[in-house]
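User: Can you fold this complex?
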Amino acid sequence: MRPAPPLRPSSVSRVLIRRHVPSSHRHVSQQAARSVAELLQWRPAQKADDVVVHGFVRSVRSMKTHRFVSLGDGSSLAPLQALVESKHAEAEGLTVGAAVRLTGSWVASPGAGQSHELHVGKVEVLGPSDAKTFPIQKKYQTPEYLRTMPHLRPRTPVNAVLLRLRSEAIASLTQFFAGRSFTQTHPPIITSSDCEGAGEVFTVTPANNTPDAVDNGSSQEPFFRSKKYLTVSTQLHLEALAQAVGNVWTLSPVFRAERSDTSRHLSEFYMLEAEMSFVDHLGPVMDLAEDMLRSLSTSLANSATVQDLLFRSRNSGSDLAPADEVKRRWEGLARQDWPRITYSDAVALLLQRADRFTHKPIWGAGLQSEHEKYLAEHIGGGEKPVFVTHYPRDIKAFYMRETQPAAPDVPGATVDCFDLLVPEFCEIAGGSMREHRLDHLLDVMRRQRIQKSPSSEGGADPDKPSVNGLEWYVDLRRWGCPPHGGFGLGFDRLLSYLAGVQTVRDMVSFPRWYGRCDC
Amino acid sequence: MRPAPPLRPSSVSRVLIRRHVPSSHRHVSQQAARSVAELLQWRPAQKADDVVVHGFVRSVRSMKTHRFVSLGDGSSLAPLQALVESKHAEAEGLTVGAAVRLTGSWVASPGAGQSHELHVGKVEVLGPSDAKTFPIQKKYQTPEYLRTMPHLRPRTPVNAVLLRLRSEAIASLTQFFAGRSFTQTHPPIITSSDCEGAGEVFTVTPANNTPDAVDNGSSQEPFFRSKKYLTVSTQLHLEALAQAVGNVWTLSPVFRAERSDTSRHLSEFYMLEAEMSFVDHLGPVMDLAEDMLRSLSTSLANSATVQDLLFRSRNSGSDLAPADEVKRRWEGLARQDWPRITYSDAVALLLQRADRFTHKPIWGAGLQSEHEKYLAEHIGGGEKPVFVTHYPRDIKAFYMRETQPAAPDVPGATVDCFDLLVPEFCEIAGGSMREHRLDHLLDVMRRQRIQKSPSSEGGADPDKPSVNGLEWYVDLRRWGCPPHGGFGLGFDRLLSYLAGVQTVRDMVSFPRWYGRCDC
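Assistant: Here's the predicted assembly.
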């Protein structure tokens, strides 16, 4: 390295940065580029010159004098048509997959496929592409094949629509909760609870190949004092935050080490969780979930993205559910007054149709997916989502509040909880009132043997029985814990439902599940 | 469990759920509660009856006939004053920390501290509190002490303000990016790259205590095929997504297993990362970072939350930086035209003041924190953030694009990158142009020995040299990779700066760092 020369600092200004920009790059900002979506909506009466667009070549048709280039930039399902003279010096670079900037005139098109097209004067190939080896083809490619290359898959037009849907849904939900003065929070990802040893958690340890460890040959102190896990749900931490600022929500990654191979499960997914403080019963919690999804549906239904989903041609080379089915889903969420039925009533209803089912409905057991499907199809008229409430206590989580007084005519104790079922997909959300009374919570934990883990600290104090790393959660009940409740919603599963994607693996850009974690 | 009785399903309706609601709870929804913040702004000319508010008792002063209760609900730093007759049956339950619902009249207050106060008719203690053991006190408590109980710490008034600041900042940024048609994305958390073996990563493995493993006594297949890590940055994945939908951003948790104990570092924190596609040089990337922060500052500066931060009394029992200092930070971000200076010019400037520094500034070495501090204080006038650009290639990451043509008068190769420095805190963001050309990228990776890891797959194909699990990242350059660049910003650090919080550990509700991961 040479020693520093005696530089004279120039005056400190924006100009400095320009010094290093090669002059050949400077023309770029002269004319702002327009998105393909923007251009497709633009139908000027007269031709417009000096129009700049950038994007990726989706296909090329070579005619005698011209090449017809389909250009996409992810902003719309439909491509833009550009005409380039075959003799153009750069025409050879317009290969499938190439990243290009085109400048030309936007003129009415004589063709039937589009109202306008770009007559290109200037071609700049910014990122060349070897079309022969480019793995993304315009022809139909199976989802399984596309899943082998998650880093390239988003370049297919349908996957770009899915990315936009996610983005617009996040923005819409953020606005919904802000409008209701819910505080958006960032609960922790690395946590101390192993979810009661259910085994479906990932553990977190620092990589051992630090330079220090190698140099010293010594084994290091554990990074954290005890075993740590990736969160399976942010609910417990949200409850702590709700006792500080009232209603809270989060959209957070959560993790499950499930060794299962289904279209509904991933090892890593986003969960939307909300917690309401100072609510006495389940009604307002269900109202919130219902209002939220209705707001999402009505705010996005007319967006270009959802219109792309609803009015795509049948042969858009995708595996999405039929457009009319997807349309029904959006309309279902927009409807008022979703039915609410108790688990006990649902079981009674299912028993009346017991001959239809492989598994007999039994009060006290979980609902089988054939049961949920029946309820989702028939109670909501195949359209509206359905709340099923008040499940038996013994099949639900320890933190759920027991229904009191117990409903008459019900064979056992229930809890104040709900599952939200939609047609086809069944459960997309679940929620409950949380047990907010210290003695009741400790009773349940004792019954469910959550107490007295030997590894847990704090067991010596008889007033603070050991509760397997959940001492802090119990603590919340010691001082000022109002009645509260909330819900969690699988965000990727909801998006799959609304997009008509058949498996959540195709809704997530880089899906992780048992055996698979590419890139 | 008793067998299911022959229930007759009731008509499916909203009414069902009401059946289980004890009548004693029904009164609640009759009068909607107002937040403390809302009430403090409300100055009716005449007294208003039947006002309902819920919250937590912060303090109680007992006088002869009345108790003066300070009530907070997280919506404002200032509490509401409520007067309860000492002889009220429930008055005894109004202990510090208790969660209560108060109903009464909102009347002009004779006291100096508030314009109005609540004359309470009805007291409901919804979550009692044993004030003697409640660890949160109104008197000053050190940050170190509060950090030992992260589940309770958010209940202090200042911590509630910090939670609201985070929420409002997320909403504001979401709106900013939506307004510019950036797609918000969810890049993966579990990734394949170990960050070039730097050792500061966490590994992810499933807990081994699954019932299956125990039952079979067998060692299971590894959950994923190879070693997996928690992401340290989403940039590489964002680049893939930017090639599909153009400009993208994310606010995502990232992880560093740094065994360091500083006020600036956490093992888990949120990073805001943005990637711009089809940009040829660094200017627009810096413009984006600058515009984003200016928009954040101007959109929030007049919010109740920021006003709480700026106009809090000096003895609010917090360790925040002085309010006038915090005010200067907000104003600094709102200013136009932040200075931009090259690293080389910065080093020359520092050399002129070399006697001030413990470490002599040397071209080719990183800037020491005393150097950054000097630049942040002097170039931005102690107010505006400062971009330092074009650092030496050899001290920067492999993916950064080399500056071409090289600037004259500069002793070695540089890259198109920037650090964004603010007074006091120094670096809060960093960005660069990414090397988008395949051959150039492979050259750098070869030079930095990122290639030819024996553990990597795909090494057999001479056209696809092994690049240590980054084959997919190299692949992005094979087909249609336009010039692009982006930046990352430590979100929690930014919030600390804007709140005046001295250590990022007090900005995050459940902070994790070397040796510490409570709750």
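Chain A is about 25% helix and 20% strand. The two ends of chain A are 36 Å apart (CA to CA).
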